[in-house]
Amino acid sequence: MVKALRRSKFILGVAAATWRLQTEAKREGELEESLDFAFRFSVGAVKIAPAQVRFEIEELLRLLQEGPPRNLLEIGTARGGTLFLLSRVATADARLASIDLPGGEFGGGYDSFWIPLLRALPRKGQTLKLVRADSHDPKTYDETRRWFAGEPLDCLLIDGDHRFEGVRRDFVMYGPLVRPNGLIVIHDIVPGPEERVGGVPAFWNLLKNVYQVRELVDDWRQGGWGIGIVEVGHEGLDPELSLTSTGTEGGPGGRESVA
Length: 259
What we know:
By secondary structure, the chain is of the alpha/beta class. It has one domain (2-258): Vaccinia Virus protein VP39 (Rossmann fold, 3-Layer(aba) Sandwich), CATH 3.40.50. 36% of the residues lie in helices and 19% in strands. The chain has helices at 2-24, 31-40, 54-65, 81-89, 115-119, 138-147, 164-174, 194-197, 200-207, and strands at residues 42-43, 46-47, 71-75, 95-100, 127-132, 153-158, 178-187, 213-216, 227-231, 256-258. The strands form two sheets. An eight-stranded mixed β-sheet has the order 5-4-3-6-7-9-8-10, sandwiched between helices. Strands 1-2 form a two-stranded antiparallel ribbon. The longest helix has 23 residues, at 2-24.
């Protein structure tokens, strides 16, 4: 009974937060204002704060501002905070999509009552497709392709299944959809507890020995988080390049590191 009452109260809080977002999230503002809004937004127990280190996500957003993405795919929706921030630096007519597996590991999945809140996050003029399914399912891939009408992605963010094979499959399946000179962003590249980072750091160590990369890391001793960026070359991405081993444990590397 108590659990049911708490759930009902939370659902009402989500509805109130959605109403507030429908007005406040549409306002244009500077990047710092958007970051403050995302990290501080709260209606009771309802929050949208991204599971990001602020320095790292801000560096990513400033990079994206240099060439605002129009077609952007996020794998791993969580509470929507990162999606909100990405929409701030995307074009005014951006086509956005976010895939999340209900009941997935590593914090994945959101209830259906959260959907209106997520739909309130993009800016006016942008469109959003929410896909509540397994990103590794061919049907999910096909649905995503249809949403973008065959156009290539400007940016792909992978922050879903953190198992080594899970992040590898997301990279191999969706990476080729990114246009030449586009960006593939991978979250949680810094080594940390298994339950937080899974096999992502090991997979990243493999990637950065094959592709041109950037690393946005506040502190390599922080035990998780960290953003890795694969810069797709002029001829597009060959996702199978030497992706055959599990890599090695390690710290900063690659072409460029921000710390």
